[in-house]
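ingest -> validate -> predict -> emit
validate: passed (alphabet ok, no gaps, 555 aa)
predict: started
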Amino acid sequence: MKRSFFALLAGVLLAGLAMAGPGAIEGVQKQPVNISAIAMFLVFVLATLGITYWASQRTKSTSDFYTAGGGISGFQNGLAIAGDYMSAATLLGLTSMVYSVGFDGFIYAIGFFIGWPIILFLIAERLRNLGKFTFADIASYRLDQNRIRTFAALGSLTVVCFYLIVQMVGAGQLIQLLFGLEYNYAVICVGILMMVYVTFGGMVATTWVQIIKACLLLGGGTLLMILCLAQFGFSLETLFNSAIETHKSGVKAMIPGKLMADPISAISLSLGLLFGTAGLPHIMMRFFTVPNAKEARRSVFFATGFIGFFFLVVMVLGLAAITIVGKNPDFFEGGQLGGKLLGGGNMPVMHLAKAVGGDVFLGFLSAVAFATILAVVSGLALAGASAISHDLYARVIKKGSASSAQEMKVSKYASIVLGILAILLGIAFKDQNVLFLVALTFGVASSVNFPVLILSMYWKGLTTRGALFGGIAGLVSSVGLVVLSPAVWVKVLGNPQAIFPYDHPAIISMSLAFFVMWLMSITDKSERAVNEAKAYKEQYIRAQTGLGSAAASSH
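emit:
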């Protein structure tokens, strides 16, 4: 989640988002052209283009384009959400992290999982009952339509754009690494395919691409896990003992708590991951694709199961790689065990696939990684296009008078513009460490979107003034603190010492957003504020019952 691309850090910190999570791919080395991977990738592309054509014949209205007409079942949507959230770097990054640091890698993965109970119990049902197409529908339900929609759309676009940068940079570097293709060609290829999926197929095509990708990722990861466990007699005890014997840290590799010893950073990161997931526009948008609140809850239940299972798979793969890859000199430069891995620090799972399944299985996993990127960027592009067409154009500029055909036309133009922008930004940020962009994405999501979303649904005292001032405070503080953090101020800008000592700002920016929303709301004594408080009762009834919510259509 989805959908998140976890930026990959060569070496120690490699983790996945967005379903997403932090990191960057560094030290990428171009590999020989992988014919089997490219062949399998072409098969996938042709299949998904066929799905896009099929979906285009069934996309007749704005509801079809944005939400697949609400006709996706809970199980299907659960798979699609999992496909949106489990990026290629979930497989590559988290496996590499377990390979590098041991058990702490698994604990880090849990951080990307804990947000889903919040979504299940607090958000999913009310989101489906209150909304229609976007997060702004909920935020502006009883507040000022123009101002809140404008702010919510800009907040969503900020998250989408930063996430797209991470995805495109990651796509270029990942495909350069796995396929042997040039970086720029990889970025252009991903951008063009994204525009085709979204422009012609809308949410129907995006959903089925994500479902297929989730099945491939889950199936491929599970098969690889079985092949690896066979090497250890299907004994987890043997696997752990072997990993301890091989890892450079020995038994310390299985002792948790080394990765983030600073409690402030740990708490701040946890807050960002916990609540940032619930503030990602492409994840929230998926709850409008199901027919009712019951299916929304079922979709979160299934998504949580799929994501949790895959993180367990990743743990096993990381431990297996310690022994299988770590003891094979063929996977190290110069045949030097414990030295630099061929292809960089992101490659343990790919080397593992080759060791137990040969070149064909390696090609399959490479194709799945590429397919994963396509699925995630399609979801992001659709969320961005909906913010532009539905929130800004149809509701703010046209004041609700835009026809369905006009809104869809703007959506498709917006998808093309976002695709071109993503390609240009991906090329421009080619050599940049994108860790700070991922941190910024989660910081913005947890500090801007989440406070407005949760308070608008659960607190009748929230006013337009409170939502605007609090949201702006969250946006400015989250962006500002990330820029002043060691990740940017020192590592990117080259200053000797960071002004803000922590990489993750959520503990301050999210708290500030909630405080400003509360303060500006309780001090707002205007007539509008009184009417907004009175309107909460109607909102509460609809949130609980779904009366008046959009009906589903079948596909």
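The CA atoms of residues 385 and 414 lie 5 Å apart.
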